[in-house]
Amino acid sequence: MRALLVDRSVPAGLRLATAPDPEPAPHQALVRVQATSLNYGEVRFALQEAPEGAVLGWDAAGVVVRAAADGSGPAVGTPVVTLGTDGAWAELRAVDTDRMGVAPAGADPGALSTIPVAGATALRALHRLGPILGRRVLVTGATGGTGRYVVQLARRGGAHVVASTGSPARHGDSLRGSGAHEVVAGPLEVQGPVDGVVDLVGGQQLVDAYGMLREGGTLVAVGHSAHEAEVFPYGALFGDQGRHDRSIAAFFLLACTELAPDLSWLAGQVASGALDPQISWRGGWEKAADAVDALLNRRLHGKAVLDIP
Q1: Whole-model pTM above 0.90?
Q2: Cα(101)–Cα(132) distance, rounded to whole angstroms?
Q3: What is the spatial distance between Cα 149 and Cα 142, in angstroms, rounded to a whole number?
């Protein structure tokens, strides 16, 4: 099969070449990949740490060409959206069936490929907040692929959505179009307390956002794009003065179980147009270096999709 292989001697560290076909385990299906979406974390960290010749990639959409030997998962010919720790940047991918969602026939594979990390993370992070109907939810780093899914899903869940972005003037209209009621330049600009926070930035923004929580509120720490420590001032974790029972929850998508139903539901929402995948860059996988460069240099606000012919 063809695949994007790690090769640090070429631009972006990726080379389109041939690799052995994957051999699925009994609980895995073999999928013919049609599109993959890139995530900042995999091009910023996974790509730098992977051995030469490795096939990386977390998100992919395609069609099952060999069903799982143990009888789990969808049948041959089923369009699917898939999540894994590697293998998405290739023509064929072996995928655990509990990390594979069924997609509607005829759905755009590129749009579906944005779902696994960004969409499933957004959905599960909001589940961690608990009921959000009628509550104020702050989303930091709202312009990224995951952030835009969080904004849309929180609005659909009945929350009053406050979106935080480094440039409200540039991104305010698009975030409001996605469902944000308010757009601010940072947590300290939020007027009044919030009931929940989905933090995609970390560092000082996480500390500031935690300070905006009302009593009983929860912050879900999802992203760490600031690459800086979280240092809380003395007294921030005291339980008096309305700060009782506030909590911080760490989050890791691959620690979540039974992701297949979530991926299937999200695929239906994207295919129907109820959720916008917010694709901001799309091209063939021979242009992977361009997409990686745009991601690393923060020129993309949304998702980057590679089509695999």
Answers
A1: yes
A2: 25
A3: 9
Q: How many CA atoms lie within 13 A of 90 on its CB side?
A: 27
Looking at residue 291, its pLDDT comes to 93
Q: Which two tokens stand for residue 197?
A: 């926070």
User: Which long-range contacts (C-beta less than 8 Å, at least 24 apart) are formed by 97-100?
Assistant: 97/27, 97/28, 97/29, 97/68, 97/72, 97/73, 97/260, 98/27, 98/72, 98/257, 98/258, 98/259, 98/260, 99/259, 99/260, 99/263, 100/29, 100/31, 100/73, 100/74, 100/260, 100/263
Stretches where the chain sits below pLDDT 50 are none
Residues of 103-130 as b/e, b for ≥16 C-beta within 10 angstroms? beeebbbbbbbbbbbbbbbbbbbbebbe
Distances (CA, A) of 300 to 44, 65, 120, 135, 144: 14, 33, 20, 30, 8
User: Strand 100-102 relative to strand 79-83: parallel, antiparallel, unpaired?
Assistant: antiparallel
CA 114, CA 97: separation in Å to the nearest integer? 18
pLDDT at position 11, please?
Answer: 83
One-letter identity of residue 46:
A
pLDDT one-digit tens code per residue, 120-135 = 999 999 999 999 999 9
